[in-house]
Amino acid sequence: MEKVRVRFAPSPTGYLHLGSARTALFNWLYARHTGGKFVLRVEDTDKERSKKEYLDEILKDLKWIGLSWDEGPFFQSQRLNLYREAADKILKKGLAYKEGEAIIYKVPHGKIIKIDDLVHGEMQFNTDEIKDQVLMKSDGSAAYNFACVVDDADMNITHIIRGDDHISNTPKQIMFYQAMGLGQPKFAHMPLMMGKDGAKLSKRHGGVAVFEYRKEGFLPEPLANYLLLLGWLPKDGRELISLAQAAEEFDIKDINKVQVKFDIDKLKWFNGEYIRSKTIKDLYPLIKEQLDNAGIKSENMDEQRLKKIIDLYKVRIKTLTEFVQLTDYFFKDDYKIDEKGKRKYLDKNGNKENIKKFSDKLKNLKDFSCENIEKICRDIEREENLKASNIIHPTRMAVSGKTKGAGLFEIMELLGKEKILERMQKVIS
Ligand code: GLU
């Protein structure tokens, strides 16, 4: 059997789009599944729009989601001679003509071009509906469809896995293989990934570029996991699956044939699951980076303390940025206050008095441990015949500015006696 060779061919004219990342992922899966090669080719023929900064980001994001390539990156901008030679050959065969400097392929009339697509089955195109095709433009650059074919042939690509948006290019490309007298690769066009509402994926669905998700505190594993389910499902229907495991089980013929919808909430669920499954040690550098990005100086922060905060919150967050929002009161005094919660718990009669009773007793507490703090709270409940919620909720508001969070007594211990008394005092007076 021939060795499988697949490729991912991004154009560095923008950041790595989620849809492109999914395409890359499936090519990678197929290469790994078959023991074949995954080639990276940069389609940078558009000089105006191709940017180094985009390329750098694309490579970084591919690595980030866990995809490694075996060959490349190759750059189309460095392969112009190859395209010119191939076009000249077609010209010499009489299958193309010149228009000034441009070389144009003459599409034959009345021919049927068939694609035996590995996902969609047979598709037919009548050449009468295709106009003559530019191979080389008058500025000396190669046209996309042509450069793509010359490269795929030169790189011995066996399977082309890409989005449905390229289906209309495929009959043209097949004609070029035929014009060059070359056998053609197999094609697998994947149904596109749309937004939840069925519209083209856009910013309002939660972002279109991989780097936006990285910045928003998504982890690469759940992103890759979710993207791969938007095109394929393991036979036993399980949803949480690693890339390595997916590579073992995946096959092209099982690619989903219908359009799929990207749902940010589903992705958040995956992200939360992966965060929970990570150790504190693994989460520590990731969270630290998020804090740094948010301008929260974590370099002086005690590692043990931050790890304890992570331990309290890792079950409560779906993204790493949520951690930063939910725990701001640990790192600064001008933390965000939930105004509605404040009105509900602090402006209510008697609640401030309860905080005062609690704080008065805490003043004498030597060992400010979570157990001791709780004991004091329970004592007041009993002695004063108070409902626990009338002490706990107001106190939580007073020390964290929030109505929800990790266990109150645990966060009090971590904030420390001095900070707690200061914040309680501020509310009372
Ligand atoms: N450069 C093309 C794109 O980014 C790739 C086309 C292909 O996979 O054949 O859409």
Describe the fold and architecture.
The chain has 429 residues and is α/β, with parallel strands linked by helices. The chain has four domains: 5-76 and 193-265, HUPs (Rossmann fold); 79-190, Rossmann fold; 278-331, Helicase, Ruva Protein, domain 3; 339-428, Arc Repressor Mutant, subunit A (Orthogonal Bundle). It contains 19 helices and twelve strands. The chain has helices spanning 18-34, 52-64, 80-92, 144-154, 170-179, 210-215, 220-229, 243-249, 264-277, 280-293, 303-313, 320-326, 328-331, 339-345, 351-363, 370-384, 389-400, 408-415, 417-428; strands spanning 5-8, 37-42, 71-75, 96-99, 102-105, 112-117, 121-126, 133-136, 159-163, 186-190, 193-195, 260-262. The strands form five sheets. Strands 1-2-3 form a three-stranded parallel sheet. The protein has a three-stranded antiparallel sheet with strand order 4-5-8. Strands 6-7 form a two-stranded antiparallel sheet. Strand 2, helix 2 (52-64) and strand 3 (71-75) form a beta-alpha-beta unit. Helix 4 (144-154) crosses helix 5 (170-179), helix 7 packs across helix 9 (264-277) and helix 10 crosses helix 11. The termini are far apart. The model has no long low-confidence stretch (mean pLDDT 95).
Count of distinct structural domains: 4
Strand order of the largest sheet: 1-2-3
CATH topology value of the largest domain = Rossmann fold
Tell me the CATH architecture of the largest domain: 3-Layer(aba) Sandwich
Number of helices: 19
Instruction: Work out the helicity level.
Output: 40-55%
Radius of gyration: 30 Å
Assess the beta-strand content as a share of residues. 5-15%
Average predicted confidence as pLDDT: 95
Tally of DSSP β-strands? 12
Shape: elongated
| Ligand names | glutamic acid
The N- to C-terminal Cα distance equals 81 Å
- Low-pLDDT sequence parts: none
Structural class: alpha/beta
Q: Sheet with the most strands?
A: 3 strands, parallel
The CATH homologous superfamily of the largest domain is termed HUPs
User: At the first level of CATH, what is the class of the largest domain?
Assistant: Alpha Beta
